[in-house]
Write a structure and sequence with these properties.
Blueprint: H1 8-31, H2 40-64, H3 73-95, H4 102-135, H5 145-167, H6 188-207, H7 210-213, H8 221-234, H9 240-268, H10 270-293
Length: 294
């Protein structure tokens, strides 16, 4: 979800609601002997805050049951962001900016954490798609990445074979057996090093997951380019094309790993936001029940 001009009405609505609440709160807190959640105005702010939290939680149900055609998803996301943020000042007005007791203090801390994590998530959703577009030209469907990795390995092995075929073509008319460069004295050692480079650097890099790949030589674009450039200079010009093709495969793998990283960042914040939101809502109801009974 990008934060664009369509969010302006929600921004104005949120600021207007905060201004109206402040206009009510300021004279109330000046005149009240003991302002807090137990007063009529404080209780009203508390009811509004809890209602906003409940509404924000409904987004999860809306996502879980997309066949419920109750408003557009984009509208729900905007309402979730701005009305969820509005819950924070309502909680502060409800408590008169002072948490009395362990449960109240925990609720206020959770409110700050949940709201700020929601703002952080909105920032991620605004910035990461653009970053993905710039940094990952080879972006693919996330669930297809393991399949693409296997295809890249097969493609790289084919190009590595082509390097040998170009430098050491089969001998004799109609020959079908391809000789490796190890049989060519002039370049035998060099091709041996290339084969060793492919088996010890390229193949492991292409088969590694992102966590392991980040510790490998080819993950660094500059060092990778130096390695491939050395072999292009070492071999005749007609071997440059398959070597460059292997380098392109390594670059595509590098971008897939970067896509995985951005995907984890984009969705990882939910591991914090969702359970804490559920805990906040549950404790909010407990707090309301305890306050009404005692």
């Amino acid at each position: 979800m990008r934060i664009d001009a369509t969010h302006k009405p929600w921004l104005y609505l949120t600021l207007g609601a905060i201004a109206l609440a402040a206009a009510i709160y300021i004279p109330y807190v000046r005149s009240a002997t003991a302002p807090g959640g137990g007063t009529p105005i404080g209780l009203t702010f508390g009811i509004i805050a809890l209602s906003l939290m409940v509404f924000a939680a409904l987004l999860s149900l809306r996502k879980r049951f997309p066949i419920w055609r109750i408003g557009r998803t984009r509208l729900w996301l905007k309402a979730h962001l701005w009305l969820g943020f509005l819950a924070l000042p309502m909680v502060l007005f409800h408590a008169a900016f002072h948490a009395r007791g362990v449960l109240a203090g925990l609720l206020m801390a959770l409110t700050f954490i949940v709201v700020l994590s929601g703002v952080y998530g909105a920032w991620l959703q605004h910035t990461i798609p653009s970053k993905m577009f710039r940094d990952v030209p080879y972006e693919t469907i996330y669930d297809q990445i393991p399949v693409i990795r296997a295809q890249l390995l097969a493609e790289a092995e084919l190009h590595a074979t082509n390097v040998t075929d170009i430098l050491a073509p089969a001998r004799g008319a109609g020959a079908t057996v391809v000789l490796t460069m190890l049989t060519v004295p002039e370049l035998g050692d060099e091709v041996g090093r290339f084969n060793d480079f492919f088996s010890k650097q390229v193949r492991p890099y292409l088969t590694a997951d992102r966590a392991k790949a980040t510790r490998m030589l080819l993950y660094d674009r500059t060092r990778s380019a130096q390695q491939f450039d050395n072999y292009r200079k070492l071999f005749p010009i007609h071997a440059s094309e398959p070597i460059a093709a292997i380098e392109d495969v390594a670059e595509e793998k590098r971008q897939l790993d970067h896509q995985v990283r951005l995907h984890h960042i984009l969705h990882g914040w939910l591991l914090c936001h969702l359970p804490l939101s559920a805990a906040l809502l549950l404790l909010g109801f407990i707090h309301a029940i305890v306050a009404l009974h005692y």
